[in-house]
Amino acid sequence: MFRDRLWRRDPLLVALIVLILVSFCGFALRRAPAGPQVAVFWLLMVAVQGCFAVCSWRVAGSMPGTSARALAGRRMWRFFGAAGAVLVLGNVVQLGVTARDATSYDAVAGAGPQLVSIAVGIALIIGGLLSYPLGGMGRAERLRLRIDVGTVMAAATTFGLWVFQPPAGGHDLAWALQTGIAVLVQPGLFLVAIFAVVKIVLSGRSPFTPAAGVLYGAAAVLQGGLQAVPATLYLDQGFRPWLFAANVAGSGLIAIGARVQERQVRAGSGRHGRAEAERPYSPLPYAAMASVWLLAFGMLAIHGLAWRSWVVLAGAAVTTALVTARQVAAFRHISELLRERDALTSRLTDLAYHDGLTKLANRGQFMRRLHEALAAGPVTVFLIDLDEFKPVNDAYGHASGDQLLIEVAQRLRACVRAGDLVARLGGDEFAVLVEGLPDDRRAGVANGLALALHGTVRIGGAEVSLSASVGMATGKYGTSDPDSLLHEADMAMYAAKESRRQLIY
């Protein structure tokens, strides 16, 4: 029942899965002679890569949206579709080569046109991947990502050149051309597979749906492993069937991934790409550098300073330089974050301990300083409350009332010493904290505060009368606590209001 439903829902997907399984079983049995076996392999490659091309074009045509990311996604899948078409063309030409002599090296390992089609397909896939935006990254984040990707790609290039087998023959122009094509095809496809995985892992923004991403990741790993296999092994009757089956499976996974992407995009079950949780760093570049150095030590121990050893040592130097550059970029980023943190801490501290309107200390800052001052010695608290402040608000509006409070704050600052603290406790209530004030000067300071807040203030086009009641209290460590001292000053201030006097002490 389940199989029937699956077949009815997507016969192409089921056909691709069955094709991979049957090819594995067929090649593993090794019943067919070498010639038909090679011909069937290239026919299967035409079929699966043709499905990849068709599904890629259909994904590009079914993606919704007109955003820059949606347009980039459609462009990427068109590149993939073109790559699939080129690969199919190369495989069709390869069928002609196989028809002439199915047991020849060119028929088994790939003739020149087929290798060229792979190189062009690689270029198109790289173009599609590079055209997809990283998304939501600043300049520094893009730089760090590119260094990380460059580190992994440098390590992958080192391994790709290490496993590369130059073609046999004389060192003439034809050999050089064949070698250049082989470099593009063997390490090149390996690097594309690595690049696709690395971009998904490090960028935090996958161009694929989750299911398609898993399939493409598996295909990338499989294709990367196949590129490490020397071409001469395809001529070995013992290895050839397994290599054919693995190649069909790798290309089949890519085709299945495109089909799954198409189904999910058409069904609207998810975005064509997904954002992942931001990670502060990835261990992948460091693992890549370590793997290259391990390979370098092994090459030196076994082969000495052979040409491959020099290639690996060059790769180790490049990956180390890139990781060092990444660390320098990380240190700069950390320094910027620390500066931002310090600025934010200063800002939050200022907001926590200062009044937003008058920029004076608030009640919290005043009480903290009062605690500290009482522990150090005698301290005098002056509590100030404006008289008839509410009528100003009612008559002229709250904006005028705010201007009056700002004027009061400026006048109070002008009356005190540099080390004294002026605070707005709330509303129209202010306080001044003075440490070490002699007894004979307390009354003078209180009178000075009252006189500073007596008179008129021009607010806009109106003259507003200003007066305040002042209460004073003095305490010292062991005999007073902040709350009781503030309460004592508060009582003195209210007594002044009731008696219409400016000072009670």
Automatic annotation (TrEMBL):
GGDEF domain: residues covered: 377-505
InterPro entries per record: DGC-Regulatory_Protein, GGDEF_dom, Nucleotide_cyclase, Rev_trsase/Diguanyl_cyclase
SMART domains named in the record: GGDEF
SUPFAM superfamilies recorded: Nucleotide cyclase (SSF55073)
Transmembrane intervals: 12-32, 38-57, 77-95, 115-135, 147-164, 176-202, 214-235, 241-260, 281-304, 310-331
A Pfam cross-reference name: GGDEF
Keywords in alphabetical order: Membrane, Transmembrane, Transmembrane helix
Region forming the signal peptide: none
Protein name: GGDEF domain-containing protein
Organism: Winogradskya consettensis
